[in-house]
Each structure stands twice: as C-alpha cells, then as structure tokens.
Design brief:
The chain has helices at about 20-25, 30-40, 70, 85-95, 125-130, 160-170, 250-255, 310-320, and strands at about 5-10, 45, 50, 60-65, 95-100, 105-110, 140, 150-155, 175-185, 190-200, 210, 220-230, 235-240, 285-295, 300-305. The protein is an alpha+beta fold. It folds into three domains: about 5-70, Structural Genomics Hypothetical 15.5 Kd Protein In mrcA-pckA Intergenic Region, Chain A (Roll), CATH 3.10.290; about 85-170, Pseudouridine synthase (2-Layer Sandwich), CATH 3.30.2350.10; about 175-320, Pseudouridine synthase (2-Layer Sandwich). The strands form two sheets. Strands 5, 6, 7, 8, 9, 10, 11, 12, 13, 14 and 15 form an eleven-stranded mixed beta sheet that branches. It has a four-stranded antiparallel beta sheet with strand order 1-4-2-3, with no helix packed on it. Strand 5 (about 95-100) and strand 6 form a beta hairpin.
Length: about 325
Amino acid sequence: MSVIKTVAVTPDEDGIRLDRWFKLHFPGLAFGHLNKLLRTGQIRVDGKRVDTATRVEAGQQVRVPPLNTDAHGVEERQPTRLKAGPSQDADFLRSIALFEDDDVMVINKPAGLAVQGGTGLTKHVDGMLDALMDAKGNKPRIVHRLDRDTAGCLVIAKRRAIAAELAASFRSRSARKIYWALVAGVPKPKQGRISTFLARDDENSERMKIAKHGEDGASHALTHYSVIDHLGQQMAWLSLKPVTGRTHQLRAHTAHIGHPIVGDPKYFDKQHWDLPGGMQNKLHLLARRIVIPHPRGKGFIDVTAPLPPHMVQSWNLVGFDSAVYDPIEDIDDN
C-alpha cells in the first residue's frame, strides 16, 4: 500500500474499537506500529486525532497512511473471522440458550454466575461473550442486568444497533418481566403493588434502602406481586412483576413489606426464622419469563426459564407445582 486511503466504517463495524477495526482490515499491522501512526497523527477518524481505544461509528472515514508491507508485514484484506475465545465458553453459552436468532440470544443464566466483572471476579457472562464474536468483530452485548445470585432469563444483543433497540424497549417499559421468588411469611393482601423510592444505603453501599422523594440518589420503584401458593404462614411463592428496573428492586421491596426472599444474604432480616431442613440457603429468585418486542419488528420474543436446581429442590420439598398458571401476567402496569 503506497498511497493514503480513506476507508468508511460499515454499519456492521459500528461501535468496535479502532485497534480491532485495524486488526480486521490490516491483520499484519503490529500494535506498536499502529500506536506510532496514531501518536503522530497519520491515522485520523473524520479528520480528528484518535487513539486505539476510540470506538468507531458507521459512516465515519478512517484515514489510513501508506503502510510499507516489506517493513511491517502488512497485508490489506477484507475483514476475516477472528479467533473465538475459549471454545468451552461458546459451548457453555449455547448450552444454556433459551432462544437465539441472528439478532438476539436469551440465556438461562445460572445462579452464582456474574453478568459483568467486578472485584475478585474472573468468570462472568460479559467476558464469556468474547467467544461469540462474529466475523466482523461484533461482540454480543448484554442489554439488561441480573444480580449474580439471581437465575433466569438474560437478554443479549448480537450487535450494537440491536442492543440500542432492545434497551429502548426496556426504557419504554414495553418489555414485560416476570420473576418467581420464595419469601418468608405470606403477604397480605395476596395481590398488590409496592411503590417506594430506592437509594443506595449510606451505611452499606452494597445495599439499597427505602428513601424519600427528593432524597439524594432516590429513584421511584414500582413492583406488582401476587401469591401463587404458600406453605401455611411460613413461606409463600410469589410472582413479581417489576415495572421499573432499579438495583435490587425486588429484593428490597419484598423485605420492605416484611417478606424477604429466602436465602438473600443482603436483605433477609427475619428474626427467629429457621430455614426448613433440606432447603439450600441460596437466593430463591428467578427471572422466570421475559416478553419483549423483536428489534426487527418480528412480533415478540417470549421466553420462559426453568427453576434452577436449588429452587427445584425447595419446590419439591414444600410441594409446590411449578406448572401452575402465573396470575401476575395480566396486571396493569400503572
């Protein structure tokens, strides 16, 4: 390559890092040499200086200076398939997929697997998604969040544009989410709504607290609940429909009405309440079902997740039937 070229970023390349964009187009270009070209301003995007971490957007123009193939071993070619991440990650994600097409994947996230990385975490869904990167460098993106110890439906977009469409559905509340939980005691009434403000707890930043309107950091949170079944007055199986999507919303809300979720290490504060024999002390919360408009207008994606093993064990122990119809489904969102 002996002349300056201007290369347009394609829609499928939208959102990828500039260093990955060069890896796709010029796989022989050494990272150190790329950095040098960027530092000296020889590579620009829409006429502006950038760095390797810059994310390019569809339609932008990348200035590519002459690259000496003899000196640098650079060969220009069309984007090729990148090596996938560990094959076991790809196999695992496929094995827990509840739905998949060319645009969207919904997985049954196991309890205990974090969605994103954090202190001391080496294994998480976001990191595993590297293994599903497509031929053009598009890494699937997580659209919403589940707590580490919550099992069930997790929606993943295969490209940035699809992620934006799905995120808009969550913001507009056109996505419907149903959770199942096992709680201490039996709420009265057996069907109702919980409306509060939630804010980060000043004394424990890993918890949310019930806050007042106007309080610093407070956001409104609304949850509908319904009792599906119960074991005397000891425990109840709830169907929960979060209208808003605040951090720890369901966990904080059930604790707020005096019926915390069984096995919740952060919010279960019932005194003189013993876990039944044979029941595991794990968070009994499942993202049971999600219904969301397909980002390409192909109707709705409607996916249901099975109970995780520890909740199957508990349901069998107390005699609950998971085939029971979910009565929360038709509750008004207002």
